[in-house]
Amino acid sequence: VPLLLKLPDGERAGTSVGTPVSLVDVTPTLAELLDLPRSPAWPGRSLLADAATGERAIYAETFYPRLHFGWSELASVVQGDRHLIEGPDPELYDLRRDPAERRNLRASERRAFAALRRALDEHDRRLRPPAAVDEESRRAMIALGYVGGGGAEPADGPLPDPKTRVGSLGDLQAGFRHAARHEHAAAAAAFRRVLAENPRMPDAWEFLGHSLAKLERPEEALAAYREALRASEGSPHVAMSAASLYLELGRLEDAEQHARLALVAHPSFAHGLLAQIALARGDLPAAERAAQASAEKGSARVRPLLTLAAVRHGQERYEEALRLIDQAVLVYRERKTPDKELLQGLHLLRGRALADLGDVAAAETAFRREIELFPADPRAYSNLALLYALAGRPRAVGPTLRRMVEDHPSAAAYAEAVKTLRVLELRAEAEQVLRKGRRLYPGNPLLTSLATNATGAG
Questions:
Q1: Cα(442)–Cα(151) distance, rounded to whole angstroms?
Q2: Do β-strands 74-79 and 82-86 pair in parallel, antiparallel, or remain unpaired?
């Protein structure tokens, strides 16, 4: 891999050094350029010094295959024109005569192979747990079955050599492409093909979970997230995905357990989830504490401000909620890279606050804006339908709910329609919609729960 240096005023322009160097040399080089003292703890050396051309052993390692794919980690040493790659099936190459590394010299150059292995053994190559995982989180992971103990090695034998499995990355990339195009069924099929050959691959399990969630197969998605958590020994960002889905399903205890797994690594997001869980329980003091913690950990960010606004709305402090929403809008406008998904729920929350303040026209505008931005999210439709009913416009309720379930059909949309109709005490209409939803989405837990709880409105 070429390393390019562009020095001030074009100094040394056009010159090159053929001897291999290391990324650990970058810090000493920058320190020399800035006339900063060199720390004795730095393992590298300045690339501006004459000594940079001297021969030495250049070490490299990657745990990416192990952490993301369930394959073996790799390490290497380059010294002179010889390159050793250490893995389940070690390789030795002559970089000068064989730069494409096609002829493995391990068997024919035993002395060079042994010497480079000794150089490799000078480095500590043990995999340590991430520093962000505290002991409390680790115990929780063990209790949930995601960590089998303390060792990094799997109990059922050595990990595969990456070069024997690299072909399966084609299916993984295909899955990512399908997911980016919202072709979730094709994405799930691609990820399943990967897992058929690589059942230990956390990334494939995680993204399979995302695809299944988009396909409204939540129990299968949760099963995939559990496999990803086991394979990764409790990855915090997978725990967040599982927690969010548990929250959507109303499984608040499971949601809380998984949100807490991410507290150390992703405190702002995890506290935000805990605030939403507390709101769902009606525990406003706990929701406020978690929302405040989320805002402190993620200051000047959109989502923590909206979480705190939701708490203020729950506390009937509607003006404060609106001020926080306006602040979130300002923060969003200052972002260098717009991300519309950050705004999901903003206009919905604004509409709710305005409706509770009695400003029906402004609330209607806010709900319609939410629908315009996120037409597949049923919550703004149901709130708009309730607003029409309360404002004395009952004829607008039916068309609004019909648009919700017909334009963007989903189990969540049918569930939202059923709950809204029950709130309005239109029970016959609610049961009719529920029957149709269960025909279209058999076994969906949201609809099943509504069928078993005839008073499950709200």
A1: 42
A2: antiparallel
Which residue reads 């998904």 in tokens?
A: 341
Report the distance separating Cα 77 and Cα 114, nearest Å.
12
The answer to pTM > 0.90 is no
Cα-based distances in Å from 202 to 26, 64, 151, 163, 246: 32, 11, 17, 18, 20
Q: Distance between CA 427 and CA 115 in Å, rounded?
A: 80
Amino acid at 301: R
With H, G, I as helix, E, B as strand and everything else as coil, classify residue 75.
strand
Instruction: Please state, in angstroms and rounded to a whole number, the distance separating the CA atoms of residues 15 and 348.
Output: 60
For the CA atoms of the chain, what is the radius of gyration?
Answer: 28
How many Cα atoms occupy the beta-carbon half-sphere of 165 within 13 Å?
A: 23
Task: Give the span between the Cα atoms of 210 and 98, in whole angstroms.
Answer: 43
Tokens of 407: 């334009």
Tokens of 428: 């016959």
- Beta bridge pairs of residue 91: 85
Structure tokens at 331: 């923060």
In the chain, the largest separation of any two C-alpha atoms, in whole Å, equals 90
Q: DSSP code of 159?
A: P
SS3 143: helix
Q: How far apart are CA 343 and CA 332, in angstroms?
A: 8
* Euclidean distance between CA atoms 83 and 93, whole angstroms: 5
- CB atoms under 10 Å from CB of 101, counted, come to 13
Burial of 163 from C-beta contacts in 10 A (0-12 / 13-18 / 19+): middle
Distance (Å, whole) CA 397 – CA 198: 50
Per-residue model confidence as pLDDT tens for the chain (458 residues)? 889 999 989 988 998 887 788 999 999 999 999 999 989 888 888 888 755 556 788 999 999 888 888 899 999 999 989 999 999 999 999 999 999 999 999 999 999 999 999 999 999 888 875 555 555 666 666 666 665 443 344 445 688 999 998 888 899 999 999 999 999 999 999 999 999 999 989 999 999 999 999 999 999 999 999 999 998 888 898 999 999 999 999 999 999 999 999 998 889 999 999 999 999 999 999 999 999 999 886 556 899 999 999 999 999 999 999 999 999 999 999 988 888 899 999 999 999 999 999 999 999 999 999 999 999 999 999 999 999 999 999 999 999 999 999 999 999 999 999 999 999 999 999 999 999 999 999 989 999 999 987 644 43
* Chain position carrying tokens 């076994």: 443
The amino acid at residue 413 is A
DSSP letter string, 361-382 = HHHHHHHHHHHHH-TT-THHHH
Residue 272 · residue 307 · CB < 8 Å? yes
